Amino acid sequence: MQRSTKRPDRIETEKVAGEKTKLRIWHSDPEYQARIEVEREEKWQFGIDEESVATLLSSTTERDDLAGEPEIPDWLSQSLAEMGIQGVESA
Length: 91
Prior knowledge:
Strand content: 35-45%
Largest sheet: 6 strands, mixed
Helix content: under 10%
Oligomer: single chain
């Protein structure tokens, strides 16, 4: 999935677990209620459905098992929960 070419509705930068983290939010998306992109050393992109469940659409994290799903770090899971996300699943 590619990120919307439209500019984000909101961009925030803050320190999370001691590291600079950038958050981009699109409030409208053709496939989801919203889309969130989190950028740190890596990037994660999530589609958010009407039940506040995040679907991992893409990630730049490296993984040992090519068939496996990328692991979502604890700090990211916690940050998503603090934003009201009810759960995270893979596409």
